[in-house]
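Weekly structure sync, notes
Attendees: PL (lead), two postdocs, one rotation student
Agenda item 3: pending single-chain targets
PL asked that the sequence for the first pending target be pasted directly into the notes so everyone works from the same version. It is reproduced below exactly as submitted, 341 residues in total.
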Amino acid sequence: MLYPIMMTLRGNIGGIFSARLSTSLNLGTIRPSFRRNTPLFMILVSAVNSVSFLLSFLSGLIVFSAQIIIVGFKPWLLGVILLTALGVQTISMSIAIPITCILGFVSFKHNIDPDIIIYPIMSTVTDIIESFTYIVAIIMVKSLIGLITLLFICILCLLVVLFFVKNYGKEEFIESIKQALASLILSLFIGWLSGLALSSVRSKLEMYPSIMIIYPAIIDTLGDFGASIGSILTTRLSEGSISPKLSLNLLELYEAIQMWLSALMYFIVYACIAFVNGFQGIHAIMLCFILSSPIILFVCKLSAIGIFKRNLDPDNFVIPFETTLSDFLGTILLSFFLGVI
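Predicted structure, written out during the meeting:
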């Protein structure tokens, strides 16, 4: 019960961090270096870790509440679930954040836009990190020494965050926390509603083994497409190179076409893989992307403009909402086309 929630949290929190880092690098408010970086960088790292910590605790409580209904009230289970949730997020974020920073710094120094590099790569890398960390945490909670070790790691992380908050600005930190928490709770709620809808259609996907081979890649690519578009939009709005209007200017149209063609190439590959494995309706795979991509683009644009006009940071909202929506759209559309083949 806890694992999919941890993966959703990882994706959304990682999306916020990737988007804000790439925007700040392009604006010059964060320098591409770990040494002597700006206070904003320290605040960003602290805020992301704090949000991860808070939502992990909340997720643990939700899972424990569900366990009370299923297996009855067992007090020791609360500690096991909470330490698992907190330990997984603490350890995985401690690994993922430096890797994300290195990727962003290197791409920026080589004149490659971090908006189109960081999240697509890190979304896959951090899935692996999160899964591996989850396995390690499950092993650790089975022993008293493991539980104590996880507790020590969580306390240490909390103390580091408090140190950064004290030394680099409380007001900016609190504002970052408020905006990120609002968007993440909303995306988790939407994800929960999406999960209820998806549970009734995934049986269709299981009828086609060839589709199940490429299904994770389809969902991941749709999310990466939207995340890249959203990250570019938030940067352009922040630097003032585009106006907060729904219409696309030449720069936006050019970038959107580039991203669309890049993602289309991946879907052609997915269709070929499915065809080689015996699936005849390859048009379903192509239509899944062709129909969902305009919706994802429109939602990214609409949400970025709406948040920007309210003087909030769109980096805190666009990617969590978009990735949740793309998961939903990809599965629903694919299942629909499989049903009418």
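Discussion points:
- The mean pLDDT is 82.
- Residues 75-109 form the longest helix (35 residues).
Action: rotation student to compare against the earlier draft before next sync.
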